[in-house]
Write a structure and sequence with these properties.
The protein is mostly beta strands. It has two helices and nine strands; from the N terminus they run ααβββββββββ. Strands 3-2-4-5-8 form a five-stranded antiparallel sheet, with no helix packed on it. Strands 1-9-6-7 form a four-stranded antiparallel sheet, with no helix packed on it.
């Protein structure tokens, strides 16, 4: 309950931005090194695959380009936490995940690659206030079948 109130309060603060600022922010690239997801606040990110197979993500308010927009959804339930990631691209996507605890400390956790045109679901049996996604890229051949950091 305490976590839900914190998440709602945080979401309320974020949604209080001026509309003109929101439209500017929605076109800003997500930091390609890392970005955070909090429970109940899905992220839509248009993806551009770079020549070195890294992926540049641009946060958008809604899906207007379904063939290039990744969807990250992080939810809490009685049984724990779940992250779902939908990959509309024609290549397998890989990224690193860190669970951020209530003190702000990161903890590495494995993540499974998201096959082309599919979704992946990751779950944990305990509360997590934040997940940090980093190093989003096209999976190399040796990463395609492994759930690793």
């Amino acid at each position: 309950m305490r976590f839900s109130i914190l998440a709602i309060s945080f979401a309320a603060v974020l949604s209080g931005s001026a509309t003109s600022q929101q439209s500017q922010v929605s076109k800003q690239p997500i930091n390609s090194t890392a970005f955070s997801i909090i429970p109940g606040a899905p992220i839509y990110a248009e993806a551009t695959v770079n020549g070195d197979d890294t992926i540049t993500l641009v946060k958008v308010e809604k899906i207007t380009n379904p063939s290039t927009t990744l969807t990250f959804s992080f939810t809490q339930s009685d049984s724990g936490m779940m992250l779902s990631v939908k990959n509309p691209l024609n290549k397998t996507v890989k990224y690193h995940l860190d669970m951020i605890d209530y003190k702000g400390k990161p903890h590495n956790t494995s993540s499974c690659p998201v096959m082309a045109g599919l979704s992946v679901f990751e779950s944990w049996p305990h509360p997590i206030p934040e997940i940090r996604v980093s190093n989003t890229h096209i999976a190399s051949k040796n990463e395609e079948g492994l759930c690793i950091y």
